[in-house]
């Protein structure tokens, strides 16, 4: 167990819970990459932080909780829960997420979140779309393309 890396992951989630972008950014290496089932690959601290600003801007009232943080000298894991209202539909989402981290120079250089896309789509989009289409590659591509387009055009305040 590497206590310094456990503290780094905890500091990141504490900052996320407070939407403290400066503190979140301070946890990331300049060469960080982020991935999840929607924003598949985002590279570089500036773009990753733009993605978080976008996410927190469209997720009304994001509340997060985290636990099960483990880390060694090279990698770490955590489980976190994101609770928010999905802005496009007004539906409540409770997303259970498993996170993987890799460290370099005492900072997070790789952050990957994994969650059940089908479960998320049922909560975020409701019926029938989320239930019927949440598992199809075409629907996933549509959601991913929209997210990439939003990230490309997003200008933080």
TrEMBL record:
InterPro entries reported for this sequence: NTF2-like_dom_sf, SnoaL-like
- State the superkingdom: Bacteria
Under Pfam families, the record lists: SnoaL_2
Question: What residues does the SnoaL-like domain cover?
Answer: 10-111
What protein am I looking at? Nuclear transport factor 2 family protein
């Amino acid at each position: 167990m590497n206590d310094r890396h456990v503290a780094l992951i905890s500091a990141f989630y504490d900052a996320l819970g407070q939407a403290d972008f400066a503190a979140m950014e301070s946890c990331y290496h300049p060469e960080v990459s982020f991935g999840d089932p929607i924003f598949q690959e985002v590279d570089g601290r500036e773009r990753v932080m733009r993605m978080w600003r976008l996410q927190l801007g469209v997720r009304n009232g994001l509340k997060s909780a985290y636990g099960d943080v483990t880390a060694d000298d090279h990698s770490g894991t955590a489980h976190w829960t994101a609770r928010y209202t999905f802005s496009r539909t007004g539906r409540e989402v409770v997303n259970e997420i498993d996170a993987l981290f890799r460290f370099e120079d005492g900072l997070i250089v790789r952050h990957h979140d994994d969650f059940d896309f089908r479960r998320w789509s049922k909560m975020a989009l409701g019926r029938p779309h989320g239930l019927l289409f949440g598992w199809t590659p075409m629907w996933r591509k549509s959601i991913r393309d929209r997210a990439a387009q939003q990230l490309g055009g997003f200008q933080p305040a």
